[in-house]
Amino acid sequence: xxxxxxxxxxxxxxxxxxxxxxxxxxxxxxxxxxxxxxxxxxxxxxxxxxxxxxxxxxxxxxxxxxxxxxxxxxxxxxxxxxxxxxxxxxxxxxxxxxxxxxxxxxxxxxxxxxxxxxxxxxxxxxxxxxxxxxxxxxxxxxxxxxxxxxxxxxxxxxxxxxxxxxxxxxxxxxxxxxxxxxxxxxxxxxxx
Amino acid sequence: xxxxxxxxxxxxxxxxxxxxxxxxxxxxxxxxxxxxxxxxxxxxxxxxxxxxxxxxxxxxxxxxxxxxxxxxxxxxxxxxxxxxxxxxxxxxxxxxxxxxxxxxxxxxxxxxxxxxxxxxxxxxxxxxxxxxxxxxxxxxxxxxxxxxxxxxxxxxxxxxxxxxxxxxxxxxxxxxxx
Lengths: 192, 178
Description:
- The complex is a heterodimer.
- By secondary structure, chain A is of the alpha/beta class.
- Chain A has a single domain (10-191), classed as Rossmann fold (3-Layer(aba) Sandwich).
- In chain A, 42% of the residues lie in helices and 18% in strands.
- Chain B is of the alpha/beta class.
- Chain B contains nine helices and six strands; from the N terminus they run ααβαβαβααβααβαβ.
- Chain B has helices spanning 3-9, 14-23, 38-47, 59-70, 82-87, 89-98, 124-127, 129-136, 152-162, and strands at 26-31, 52-55, 75-81, 104-108, 139-143, 166-170.
- The longest helix of chain B has 12 residues, at 59-70.
- Chain B is globular.
- The two termini of chain B are 28 Å apart.
- At the A-B interface, α3, α5 and α9 of A face β2, α4 and α6 of B.
């Protein structure tokens, strides 16, 4: 499905994904964090990636630290472009419990919706070349809905591009998303 | 002997550093190779089955990985060159300082003259490291001879106990153990 015109909305994809999520740690950045957070508070949500691009690296650490704990990363395309090397690092470390999504809308949505340098860049292709165990590329919500259960059940590292439209303007409440209490709660949950 | 002559004769044993890292409970080493620590530290670490070495592409990845590991109280040491430290400052600013995460960095001072204080180095890049750490409020220790190795375990223990970053500056090429 590489190169297909975007047909999905990010929030719709996340609603489909949420039906399959139980005790996974979900790491999300910027617009993905806003949309995922809209679906409800979860202790195992993790938005404090700190610097643009680092979501995948936090995800690798959380996956390596406990191989039985499933970890999902909801990355952005502009974010992942800032940390493309992490694709190679993750593939080499080969955590079976990591699923890495990138929401590709071709823009730096949280920074004025300017285009990324190449909106058509093939992230799944790069992840495949880097050595991810499984890669997927979705642009159709029906196909995503039909296959997401299978994607989440695969041994990782798994990569999936979600080709999505630009969303309506979002409200970015960073102090709430990045609250220290959320980090403390996550650590307590993982200790129990 | 004057201080400079004493420093010229001083040595830094990589085996002692490695033992201190392991004594501090470090399980993961995250690294981009640095010629300062390449032979005396990184190669022995790569051969050591008690440590898991994660080779990263760019140094700021280490900040995220170490933060993720810390949620399970898994200890990590970031082994990089000062150039990589400088390149990672925004990640260190956010994750290590503002989020108060236990980020432990071992930073090779490439080109540093061991007989001088780093702030007196002829290399601009080396000269600015300690002032930057001070400005960011990051604790740091200089490791340039065997007697300094005793600082490593307490520094890492303190970083994890207080959930705060620390930088261990390697001011001389560690000698590989025989």
